[in-house]
Amino acid sequence: MQIITDRQELARLVTQWHRQGETIGVVPTMGSLHNGHLALVRALDGKVTRRIVTIYVNPIQFNNADDFRLYPRSPEADADLLRQTGIVDVLYTPDSQDMYPEHFSTQVTVSGADTILCGADRPGHFNGVTTIVTKLLMQTGADVAVFGEKDFQQLSIIRRMTEDLNFPVSVLSVPVVREADQLALSSRNRRLTAQQRRQAAQLPSLLLACIASMKHDQTEEDALATCRTKLTQAGFTVHYLELRSGETLKITAAADPSARLFVAASLEDIRLIDNMPLS
Predict the structure, then answer these.
(1) Which of 97, 151, 211, 277 has its CA 20 to 30 A from that of 220?
(2) Catalytic, out of 18, 37, 125, 239
(3) Which NCBIfam families match (predicted)?
(4) Quick check: pTM over 0.90?
């Protein structure tokens, strides 16, 4: 596995691969890697001949300076983990001066879906996501890009962007990867204290209970209200808890075959997100 930090060096390698008829898959990450990220890497099995993992903690998608400062970083451990897979060709770790040089003034916006859920909770977040993903797709020359369904809104927005702008890339999704107690894997989980980690396990269990209530003829409004109350009692600050279409992200009913339950909730300053399909 090569570790490349220079954009021009990556461009030369990608050009060589394309001339040789290779196909390229990319897994964009912000590092602090875990088994969820490795599932994204393995999802490229049989789909491409070369794999690039990118690690870059993107400053313009953070609307909270402390969140950016405290975001977990483990570059050496990340590189070791990727080497151990034996299937990653390049780890690309650009620096901010290369990604956002002086006078950088362009952002990519996907209108509509960026103002709900995490977009409402974190203004400007998705402009930062779509801008950095655009740059990474162009720099890596990817034929396939892989994203996890834990960040389902992000996945939907990136799909919309690549379709609208005719990117020559296929977007592949991977289901949420969970711990034994069903907590969704997340880099931010590493910031949880032992007590908070026990509290965090209640998040998926309460979502499952909410879904079960809806399936047993409790109204969506009552089931969501009960779940919100129980989350608050468990120590969470609930940012949103909503039932939305997995196809359009619009508010929907439990009878919708694409319906998903979306949540963002914090334990002190650690923000956790999750989503689950009803069917």
Answers:
(1) 151
(2) 37
(3) panC (TIGR00018)
(4) yes
